[in-house]
Specification:
Layout lengths: L1 H18 L4 E3 L8 H10 L3 E7 L9 E5 L5 E3 L3 E7 L14 H10 L4 E8 L7 E5 L12 E7 L16 H11 L2 E8 L9 E5 L11 E7 L10 H15 L1 H24 L1 H4 L3 H5 L3 H15 L1
Protein name: PASTA domain-containing protein
Pfam families: PASTA
Length: 304
């Protein structure tokens, strides 16, 4: 019975301390203290400690450079306090080549290594695969030093087939050739008014031909601008239709009526002209011959 009573009293005390703990304490300031001293002060305040080792240039070796929660805060006893201690160890670049980008970033984050730049490069590797890292794997990083990684992009061009660079200017063509691995070495010039100025109009090898990496390619550049081309009859008609749609049907009708009135007025003047009555009999047999000639000439002018 005595044992049971003693166990009950002791057990109640433990239960109260863990589940109904109302005792409070103030977190001491352990910043810039040695690791062992910081742990000692925190435990004397009734707190638990979790030590996280990391590298920093803010404090000397084995000294606390951060704590959470912040000092001066009032908390319950047995609260876990995190402290960050400078261990002075350099971080080493892990070997992430061949990993998928998401996996590589997760691995780097777990080691507190930050990425400065991500560059993409066409490759036969799977999309978003790590092709390279700088500094190279195994390198010890300086304080706060970041790394750069090279990632595979989708292969856009078949490196064994000559791409179609006709119509490009020389600078754009060189960039495209660089991706395939060929060199534009021989450049010649010609004049072709049917093609745009300063663009490639032919290549050797031609587009679609089999090529090898490092192969030299010849291109011909156009030095003439397109000549002004005369409009065809069909284009003139289509333009007239567009004008009708643009200016409106009513205006087109008014213009047509005016043209008809002017034409009739001209015919009447020709009929009343006294010089026409003085023509010989042949003219009388074909009175419209002169008018037909004038009409034909008018149509020719209009066609031009």
């Amino acid at each position: 019975m005595i044992c049971l009573v003693t166990l009950g009293i002791f057990g109640r005390g433990v239960f109260d301390r863990h589940f109904f703990n109302t005792r409070m304490t103030v977190i001491p300031n352990v910043m810039n203290l040695n690791e062992k001293e910081a742990i000692k002060y925190l435990k004397e305040a009734g707190l638990k400690v979790k030590v996280i080792h990391s590298k920093t240039e803010k404090v000397p070796l084995n000294v606390v450079h951060n704590q959470d929660p912040r000092p001066g805060k009032k908390v319950k006893v047995n609260r876990v306090i995190k402290i960050w201690v400078n261990n002075g160890q350099n971080q080493v670049v892990p070997n992430i080549i061949g990993l998928e980008l998401l996996e590589a970033r997760s691995k780097l984050k777990g080691q507190n290594i930050q990425i400065e730049t991500i560059d993409y490069y066409p490759s036969n590797q799977k999309y978003n695969t790590i092709l390279g890292v700088y500094p190279k794997p195994g390198t010890k990083l300086e304080i706060n030093q970041k790394i750069s990684i090279l990632v595979s992009s989708q292969q856009m061009i078949d490196p064994s087939v000559m791409p179609n660079i006709v119509g490009l200017d020389l600078n754009d063509a060189r960039e495209l050739a660089k991706q395939v691995g060929i060199n534009i070495q021989n450049v010649s010039y010609t004049s072709d008014q049917t093609l745009p100025l300063n663009t490639i109009i032919s290549t050797n090898p031609a587009a679609g031909a089999r090529i090898q990496r490092g192969q030299n390619v010849s291109v011909v550049i156009n030095t003439a601008s397109r000549a002004r081309r005369r409009q065809t009859t069909e284009e003139i008609i289509n333009r007239s239709k567009n004008d009708i749609n643009k200016n409106g049907i009513e205006k087109a009708i008014d213009d047509t009526i005016n043209k008809i009135d002017n034409s009739n007025s001209g015919n009447n003047n020709s009929t009343n002209n006294p010089t026409n009555s003085g023509n010989d009999g042949n003219s009388g047999d074909n009175p419209s011959q002169g008018n037909n000639s004038d009409s034909q000439q008018s149509e020719d002018d209009s066609g031009e």
